[in-house]
Amino acid sequence: MAAGVSQLPTGEYLRHGQTPFFRLPQADFHAPAPYAGAGAVLLGVPYDGGTTHQPGARHAPAAIRRVSGLIHSYHPVHQADVFRKLLTLDGGNVPLPPFDAALVRTVIQREVAQVLQAGATPFVVGGDQTVALPSLRAVAACHGPLAVVHVDAHHDTSGPEVWGDAYHHGTPLRHALSEDLIERGQLWQVGLRASWGTPRRGPSMEALERRSVAELVAAIRLGVGERPLYVTFDIDAVDPAFAPGTGTPVPGGLTSREALQFLRGLKGLRLVGMDVVEVCSVLDHADITCHLAAALLLEGLALRALAA
Ligand code: MN
Prior knowledge:
The protein is an alpha/beta fold and about 300 residues long.
């Protein structure tokens, strides 16, 4: 794959009849090294076996691919051509055995590790947030304990007490902490506001209501410093008015503009992996949520491109 290969022109992708993420080149799985030369790889993970309420997130990779075809490479705020700076490939979807949750985690971790072994940064498109754990395991195995920015309405630190299972979409951050995938003191949670049966520590949506996005981002930048940073972005952090297509919506969240500003503000940090999860495209209206997810992914890719 030659450097400088970028998006298919709009007309060409229409003729092509397929829509890879952002009209990007697709990884060639017949080649001995499908990700060779890539700076970033987008991986769809069509899995929603960990949802506790409304399923459907398995359809998100296809739905986000479709609307991402509208997005152009030039980032008007950063004033940078993202995909010219960062050779990005659509790595297709992770082929999953949907009835074996433990094997699903193993397969996802292996696929993300393959992206990392090629020297590329993984951008995982879920799927429910269950997929964040194997992704974090692969990225931490490569980079060591991580700083993690977790944007979500929920803590996602549940145990088996509610559903009788240690693994579902409300648990990945608990495992990531207990497995030391996250450096102590380096979990930055933004957008929390869901109710819970017992008191919980941690910043809430209120922190964002009291402070501007710029102030919040400045504090996180200072705290993270040079550490390798992973961003796990649950779309339900965003208000259901802006992101109706999600399985466990909670009123009172970020606006889509705040979400984009927040990610933009992380410019300069060392992003080593990202996921965007919990888009339930079957509950979406007018593709609002899918468009936002694609825009958030572009923000993440821009962060990585600017550091390239
Ligand atoms: Mn979540």
